[in-house]
Amino acid sequence: MGERPDPRSDPRIPERRRGLRHAWDATGYSLAGLRRLSRETAARMECLGAALGAAALWGAGASAVDVLVAAILFLLLLAVEAINTALEVLTNRVSPGWSEDAKDAKDLGSLAVGLLILANAGWVAAVCTGLA
Ligand SMILES: Nc1ncnc2c1ncn2[C@@H]1O[C@H](COP(=O)(O)OP(=O)(O)OP(=O)(O)O)[C@@H](O)[C@H]1O
């Protein structure tokens, strides 16, 4: 069996640095991820939903704690959407044709996002109706 080429020898992959420089680099990579996520229609729709939810919470006179919980749930949704997008990108790369595994991977990622959308909508509905 032939040896695999070391991907780190590709000059487009930045070298790993240590300490504060590592944290600085990681922040840059996260911002690059945010730019990539902003190209996803689903992420844009979720931001629109968050804006509508914020308006509903404001109209219902939600407390600061209610708004904090809603904000944390929304950040969790964006985080899972980012991981789902990464999963889709990798799935398309590994399995460009139809496969049961690709279907499972994408459907499960979709389920994770769907559950968090339910949690977000449920929380806003509970606050607005006085249940929470
Ligand atoms: N390679 C594949 N093999 C089998 N089924 C697939 C494959 N690609 C997609 N699917 C099926 O099609 C569905 C939609 O896939 P798609 O890639 O369009 O994702 P999506 O959830 O619409 O993503 P997005 O709209 O965020 O890009 C998947 O959930 C899966 O059921």
Automatic annotation (TrEMBL):
Keyword Disulfide bond: no
Amino-acid positions noted as binding ATP in the UniProt annotation, renumbered to this chain: Y29, E40, E88, K106, D107
Binding site for substrate: A42, A43, R44, M45, E46, E81, S110
GO molecular function: ATP binding; kinase activity; metal ion binding
Cofactor section: Mg(2+)
Positions annotated to bind a divalent metal cation: E40, E88
Major location (coarse): membrane
Any GO BP annotation: phospholipid biosynthetic process
TM helices/strands, residue ranges: 67-87, 108-126
Active site location: E81 (proton acceptor)
Gene3D superfamilies xref list: 1.10.287.3610
Record key words, sorted: ATP-binding, Cell membrane, Kinase, Lipid biosynthesis, Lipid metabolism, Magnesium, Membrane, Metal-binding, Nucleotide-binding, Phospholipid biosynthesis, Phospholipid metabolism, Transferase, Transmembrane, Transmembrane helix
InterPro entries the record matches: DAGK, DAGK_sf
Record's cofactor remark: Mn(2+), Zn(2+), Cd(2+) and Co(2+) support activity to lesser extents.
Compartment(s) where it occurs, according to its Swiss-Prot or TrEMBL record: Cell membrane
Superkingdom of source: Bacteria
Family: Belongs to the bacterial diacylglycerol kinase family.
Protein name per its UniProtKB record: Diacylglycerol kinase
Originating species: Pseudooceanicola nanhaiensis
